[in-house]
């Protein structure tokens, strides 16, 4: 009669070794998988705000240049970093900044107040497209929308 104890011991060891290896691998995979509850919240939508000065055939009027400087100072005072770009041949300039949608209304109200009654300066705003970054939206050379 064969010694069954001698035959089953190596098999039992092999099974135990495989089980421990499997548990070890599964534990490592579980530790690397982030919990579903801790998933990051979706990012707040961002809005691109642009302020343009325009020329009248003899350069940008002084009032429009001064209003643009005031808008720039207000943006800097709020901790924003506007991108300033010259876009025309007569000194036309563009200020561009990306803000959270929650901050959009307050900033637009300040801009509108600063440029109220001044000709040859205008404001444009739009939501950033999916995958569009602030650097891409505000890059120099980007087309200026028609009035």
UniProtKB/TrEMBL annotation:
Entry keyword Signal: yes
Signal peptide segment: 1-30
Annotated keywords: Signal
Source organism, top-level taxon: Bacteria
Protein name in the entry: DUF4349 domain-containing protein
Organism: Mangrovimicrobium sediminis
């Amino acid at each position: 009669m064969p010694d069954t104890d001698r035959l089953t011991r190596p098999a039992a060891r092999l099974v135990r070794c495989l089980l421990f290896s499997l548990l070890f691998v599964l534990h490592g995979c579980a530790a690397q998988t982030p919990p579903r509850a801790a998933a990051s919240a979706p990012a707040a939508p961002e809005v691109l705000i642009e302020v343009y000065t325009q020329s009248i055939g003899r350069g940008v009027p002084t009032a429009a240049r001064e209003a643009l400087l005031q808008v720039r100072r207000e943006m800097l005072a709020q901790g924003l970093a506007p991108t300033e770009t010259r876009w025309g041949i007569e000194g036309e300039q563009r200020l561009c900044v990306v803000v959270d949608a929650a901050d959009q209304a307050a900033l637009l109200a300040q801009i509108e107040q600063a440029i109220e009654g001044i000709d040859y300066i205008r404001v444009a705003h739009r939501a950033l497209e999916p995958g569009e970054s602030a650097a891409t939206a505000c890059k120099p050379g980007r087309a200026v929308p028609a009035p």
